[in-house]
Amino acid sequence: MRLPMFAKYPKSVRHDLTRTMWYDDFQDGRVILRQGDPGSRMYFIVSGELDLMRRDVLDTGEEMKYHIKTLRAGATFGELALIRNMRREYTAVCKGNQI
Protein backbone atom coordinates (compact mmCIF):
# COMPACT_ATOMS: atom_id res chain seq x y z
CA MET A 1 0.00 0.00 0.00
CA ARG A 2 2.96 2.36 0.59
CA LEU A 3 4.56 1.87 -2.83
CA PRO A 4 3.26 4.48 -5.31
CA MET A 5 3.97 2.29 -8.34
CA PHE A 6 1.21 -0.11 -7.27
CA ALA A 7 -1.41 2.59 -6.50
CA LYS A 8 -3.06 2.22 -9.91
CA TYR A 9 -3.83 -1.46 -9.33
CA PRO A 10 -6.98 -2.66 -7.55
CA LYS A 11 -6.59 -3.93 -4.00
CA SER A 12 -7.11 -7.54 -5.16
CA VAL A 13 -4.13 -7.31 -7.55
CA ARG A 14 -1.93 -5.74 -4.87
CA HIS A 15 -2.92 -8.53 -2.51
CA ASP A 16 -1.96 -11.17 -5.10
CA LEU A 17 1.40 -9.46 -5.64
CA THR A 18 2.23 -9.69 -1.95
CA ARG A 19 2.06 -13.48 -2.20
CA THR A 20 5.18 -13.47 -4.39
CA MET A 21 7.14 -10.95 -2.29
CA TRP A 22 8.57 -10.89 1.18
CA TYR A 23 9.43 -8.11 3.59
CA ASP A 24 12.83 -7.85 5.23
CA ASP A 25 14.19 -5.37 7.76
CA PHE A 26 17.85 -4.34 7.42
CA GLN A 27 20.03 -2.28 9.73
CA ASP A 28 22.20 0.70 8.83
CA GLY A 29 25.33 -0.31 6.90
CA ARG A 30 23.98 -3.69 5.77
CA VAL A 31 25.05 -4.66 2.25
CA ILE A 32 22.00 -5.86 0.31
CA LEU A 33 23.82 -6.80 -2.88
CA ARG A 34 27.39 -6.52 -4.11
CA GLN A 35 28.81 -5.34 -7.40
CA GLY A 36 29.50 -8.43 -9.50
CA ASP A 37 26.79 -10.60 -7.90
CA PRO A 38 24.35 -12.29 -10.30
CA GLY A 39 20.97 -10.59 -10.67
CA SER A 40 18.48 -12.93 -9.05
CA ARG A 41 15.84 -10.52 -7.69
CA MET A 42 14.68 -6.93 -7.56
CA TYR A 43 13.95 -4.82 -4.50
CA PHE A 44 11.33 -2.29 -3.39
CA ILE A 45 12.26 0.25 -0.73
CA VAL A 46 9.33 0.57 1.66
CA SER A 47 11.08 2.83 4.19
CA GLY A 48 14.56 4.15 4.87
CA GLU A 49 17.30 4.92 2.36
CA LEU A 50 19.90 3.03 0.38
CA ASP A 51 23.22 4.13 -1.14
CA LEU A 52 24.36 2.72 -4.48
CA MET A 53 28.16 2.52 -4.59
CA ARG A 54 30.53 1.46 -7.37
CA ARG A 55 34.15 0.35 -7.44
CA ASP A 56 36.28 0.48 -10.58
CA VAL A 57 39.89 -0.52 -11.14
CA LEU A 58 41.84 1.73 -13.50
CA ASP A 59 44.44 0.49 -16.01
CA THR A 60 47.07 1.63 -13.53
CA GLY A 61 45.67 -0.77 -10.92
CA GLU A 62 44.37 2.11 -8.82
CA GLU A 63 40.97 1.44 -7.24
CA MET A 64 38.28 4.12 -7.45
CA LYS A 65 35.19 4.02 -5.25
CA TYR A 66 32.30 6.40 -5.73
CA HIS A 67 28.72 7.06 -4.72
CA ILE A 68 26.20 6.73 -7.56
CA LYS A 69 23.07 7.91 -5.77
CA THR A 70 20.83 7.54 -2.74
CA LEU A 71 17.46 5.82 -3.16
CA ARG A 72 14.53 6.55 -0.84
CA ALA A 73 11.20 4.96 0.08
CA GLY A 74 9.11 4.17 -2.99
CA ALA A 75 12.13 3.44 -5.23
CA THR A 76 13.13 0.10 -6.73
CA PHE A 77 16.53 -1.31 -7.60
CA GLY A 78 18.01 -4.48 -9.04
CA GLU A 79 15.50 -4.97 -11.84
CA LEU A 80 17.93 -4.41 -14.72
CA ALA A 81 20.32 -7.19 -13.69
CA LEU A 82 17.35 -9.49 -13.11
CA ILE A 83 15.68 -8.80 -16.46
CA ARG A 84 18.91 -8.92 -18.48
CA ASN A 85 20.41 -11.84 -16.53
CA MET A 86 23.60 -9.91 -15.86
CA ARG A 87 25.88 -9.17 -12.91
CA ARG A 88 25.20 -6.28 -10.54
CA GLU A 89 26.91 -3.04 -11.54
CA TYR A 90 26.93 -1.55 -8.03
CA THR A 91 26.86 -2.38 -4.33
CA ALA A 92 23.69 -1.42 -2.41
CA VAL A 93 24.16 -0.41 1.24
CA CYS A 94 21.40 0.45 3.75
CA LYS A 95 21.42 3.95 5.10
CA GLY A 96 19.31 4.06 8.25
CA ASN A 97 16.95 1.28 9.25
CA GLN A 98 14.37 -0.65 7.23
CA ILE A 99 14.07 -0.97 3.51
Considering the chains and any ligands shown, give keywords for the structure.
99 residues, 31% strand, Jelly Rolls, elongated, two-stranded antiparallel ribbon, single chain, alpha+beta
Could you say what the CATH architecture is?
A: Sandwich
Stretches with pLDDT under 50, minimum 5 residues? none
CATH level-1 class: Mainly Beta
Global geometry: elongated
Topology order in helix (H) and strand (E) letters: HEEEEEHE
CATH superfamily: Jelly Rolls
Helix proportion of residues, in percent? 10-25%
Compute the number of strand runs.
Answer: 6
Q: What is the CATH topology descriptor?
A: Jelly Rolls
Supply Rg: 15 Å
Count of discrete alpha- or pi-helical segments spanning 4 or more residues? 2
Give the domain tally: 1
Termini, distance in Å? Answer: 15 Å
Question: How do the strands line up in the largest sheet?
Answer: 1-6-3-4
What share of residues are in beta strands? 25-35%
The biggest beta sheet is recorded as: 4 strands, antiparallel
Query: Which structural class do you get from the secondary structure elements?
Result: alpha+beta
Average per-residue pLDDT, rounded, comes to: 87
Protein name: KAPR-like protein
Organism: Mya arenaria (Soft-shell clam)
Pfam family, one: cNMP_binding
Domain Cyclic nucleotide-binding: 5-99
